[in-house]
TrEMBL record:
Record bears the keyword Membrane: yes
Membrane topology note: Multi-pass membrane protein
Protein name (Swiss-Prot/TrEMBL): TMM8A factor
Keyword annotations of the record: Cell membrane, Disulfide bond, EGF-like domain, Membrane, Transmembrane, Transmembrane helix
Organism: Daphoenositta chrysoptera
Length: 731
């Protein structure tokens, strides 16, 4: 009996790729006994003229988010990378594209899909100047699940019938813990016409990007078998039998599965846990009496090591934070490794929230503990089941997965492994001592290896040129590095396009010292008695300088206060400077001008709090101030019956150069800035805006005289001027 189920998630807007946070993640859970998985991928784009043909890349992975590298950057040293399975969806003339992806006999558990657009162009777009084309992507999942899948009991032959090639037979068998091998046999295989069978047996499930499904073809043979090493522990293993014969002939088979179970030898985890609690809680009455049984138990375990096939070391999982776990060995950080049987450590990563980080395993060999020269300790990190035959095969593979090998020796005593986005499962670390041929008694040799294992959101916290960001998709959390100063790669370790320290210092100096061009504007404003405007320009120069000193991506950084506060003050000062400059050019009455100064500043502060990067936060006050200025100029011209300003020198030498500089500044700011040229194009913006302000400020009032400190008398009498009657009085 088959049951179909449907799972859907909301569509997401795709982004051009510059780091992993631009990839849109979809997280699904495939139920047990699923025989068919079908992905429905729907991609669409807008209908505007800005929408062009686009290629969408979609990555698939089982157990963890896919590890992708669209930019072709380098991964950190000691990191293991296996390319993800991906397809491309092209949106050309059609507005929408629908693609199906089928997976037969998929592995149960978490499946992830990541979709993104091509590499980002790097141009800094001002919000509101251009309308980007929306590219949407949605992934839906259909599953076909078998509700009454037959169970194959170990050691018990089970007869079954394959009705036709169109209806394969599905069975499952449970793999017990400590199973070192599995033997599967197909016997008594005949067709309904009493002829030799022609069938194909598939063992295991399909996982992406790599699938290790085993295939066994029985053609013209009555009995056939298959042996597997290290099957996945405590999991259901799917077996599919397909008929390769004629469509009308059924096939009768008898299946038998048996397991070889390994007997582990280890110290008592319970006694180790008690001793751990005692060491943490301190000495208590009666605690000393427990040392004798523990010592006796350790002696019994040591005597039984030769008869066991593995030595299990108890490990405690300690959760530190989100996607942050530390593993502690109860017997200490150093573990004994012999050549008789592998030493096994369990690293639990099956909570469902551990696959969004990086698993780091570090091995350090105590060279003084190795009694044999040239001996090597080989290790293997694998998921689902451990590698128990390190001395025989050193390719670090299990029945349905490929592990990650490590080795330490007297010549190279340290080894590190970084597993990016480890799949959700039980992970195992197997260690065994390998001795050179014909050298001493290898059976009695032993080495001690210090093991450090932990799960971290970002390896090395993304280094000095990166920032570790915690991303979320519904309830699932995962981490990724956002690089800066030209650095790239998964952990910001690729310095191919990195900025040198000199370039970083130059960028900081240009962006900060270019604000000093406001000094001429401040001097002109003070000279012409525009003290409020001069105060605003001083405020803008100060916060723009220190905001850009704090905003630098490299090492040349200095923050005098919180970054968000500096950014807000910089944006506020920039917009208010434009606002007061245009109102000052309008030459309205002082009381009205100062009312507009205060009211406009309050409204600008409110709009910046709502949307700090919106283009209308700057364009709105500018346009409103220009309307006021034009209306005031028209009023002055109509009152005087000639053009205002009336002086052609004012137009030629001040207004036209100031307006030209302002338009060039806006063009540079809106259309020319990119991530690569930001430090000098934005510096040009600072210089042009500051110079335009100095040109656009109107001359002082005619009744205002220049600053003359000689007019201040020593006898504390001051000469005052009546602005209206132009009469002088002595006070």
């Amino acid at each position: 009996l088959y049951v179909s189920e449907y799972f859907s998630q909301s569509a997401q807007k795709l982004s051009f790729y510059s780091w992993y946070g631009n990839a849109k993640l979809f997280h699904f859970h495939v139920p047990e006994d699923t025989v068919l998985l079908r992905w429905l991928l729907q991609a669409s784009r807008g209908k505007g003229p800005e929408c062009t043909s686009m290629e969408i890349t979609v990555h698939f992975r089982h157990g963890a988010p896919p590890v992708i590298n669209p930019l072709g950057t380098r991964f950190p040293a000691n990191a293991t990378v296996r390319p993800s399975y991906n397809i491309s969806i092209t949106l050309s003339s059609a507005v929408q594209n629908t693609t199906f992806v089928n997976v037969t006999s998929p592995a149960a558990g978490d499946w992830f899909i990541a979709a993104h657009l091509p590499e980002a162009a790097g141009r800094i777009e001002v919000k509101g100047f251009s309308t980007p084309c929306p590219y949407m992507f949605q992934a839906d999942m259909f599953v076909l699940r078998l509700t009454d899948m037959p169970v194959l009991e170990p050691g018990v032959p089970m007869p079954h019938t394959v009705v036709s090639p169109a209806k394969p037979l599905h069975v499952k068998v449970f793999v017990p813990k400590h199973a070192s091998g599995m033997w599967f046999q197909l016997s008594s295989c005949v067709t309904s016409e009493q002829r030799a069978c022609n069938v194909r047996v598939l063992l295991g499930s399909i996982t992406l990007p790599q699938s290790f499904q085993k295939s066994l073809t029985c053609t013209g043979s009555i009995n056939c078998s298959l042996a597997l090493d290290s099957p996945p522990w405590e999991k259901w293993l799917q077996i599919v039998v397909e008929s390769l014969g004629t469509a009308n002939a059924s096939v009768s088979v008898e299946m038998l599965a048996s397991f070889t179970v390994c007997r582990p030898g280890s110290t008592s985890s319970f006694l180790n846990f008690i001793s751990l609690n005692q060491s943490q809680a301190g000495a208590r009455p009666g605690a000393a009496g427990s040392s004798a049984p523990a010592a006796g138990e350790a002696a019994r375990n040591a005597s039984g090591q030769r008869s066991s096939c593995l030595q299990s070391q108890p490990v405690v999982r300690e959760d530190l934070d989100v996607v942050s776990v530390r593993y502690r060995l109860l017997n200490g950080p150093s573990v004994p490794v012999s050549s008789l049987s592998p030493t096994l450590l369990l690293l639990n990563l099956n909570t469902g929230m551990d696959s969004g980080g990086s698993l780091v395993v570090n091995l350090l060999l105590n060279k003084t503990s190795v009694s044999l020269a040239n001996a090597t300790v080989v290790a293997c990190v694998s998921a689902a089941s451990p590698v128990l035959s390190l001395n025989a095969t050193r390719n670090c593979s299990t029945a349905f997965s490929q592990g990650y090998p490590l080795s330490v020796s007297t010549s190279s005593g340290e080894a590190m492994l970084i597993v990016l986005y480890p799949q959700t499962d039980d992970w195992f670390l197997s260690l065994q001592l390998l001795c050179p041929r014909g050298q001493g008694d290898c059976g009695s040799a032993e080495a001690r290896v210090t093991v450090f294992a932990y799960l971290t959101p970002c390896f090395s916290d993304c280094g000095p040129y990166g920032q570790c960001s915690l991303l979320r998709r519904h309830g699932y959390l995962y981490a990724a590095c956002s690089c800066k100063a030209g650095w790239g790669g998964w952990s910001c370790t690729d310095d191919t396009k990195a900025q040198t320290v000199g370039t970083q210092n130059l960028a900081t100096l240009l962006l900060t010292l270019s604000n000093l061009m406001f000094l001429p504007a401040i001097a002109v404003a003070v000279y012409r008695y525009y003290l409020v405007e001069a105060s605003v320009y001083t405020y803008t120069m100060f916060f723009s300088t220190f905001y850009h000193a704090c905003d630098q991506p490299g090492v040349a950084v200095m923050c005098i206060m919180d970054y968000d506060t500096l950014q807000y003050c910089d944006f506020l000062g920039s917009v208010v400077s434009i606002w007061v400059t245009i109102l000052c050019m309008a030459r309205v009455k002082k009381i009205l001008k100062y009312v507009l100064f205060v009211l406009g500043t309050l409204l600008i502060a409110m709009s910046l709090q709502l949307d700090r990067r919106g283009v209308w936060n700057m364009m709105g006050p500018c346009l409103f101030a220009l309307v006021i200025m034009v209306a005031a100029w028209v009023h002055h011209g109509a009152k005087r019956r000639h053009c205002y300003p009336s002086s052609w020198k004012r137009w030629v030498f001040y207004l036209l150069p100031g307006i030209t500089l302002a338009f060039i500044a806006i063009s540079v700011y809106a259309f020319m800035e990119t991530n690569e040229n930001y430090y000098y194009t934005h510096s040009i913006w600072h210089v042009l805006v500051a110079c335009s302000v100095a040109f656009l400020l109107p001359p002082r009032d005619k009744h205002k005289k220049p600053w003359a400190w000689s007019q201040k008398l020593t006898c504390r009498y001051q000469i005052c001027q009546n602005d209206r009657e132009e009469l002088y009085a002595v006070t």
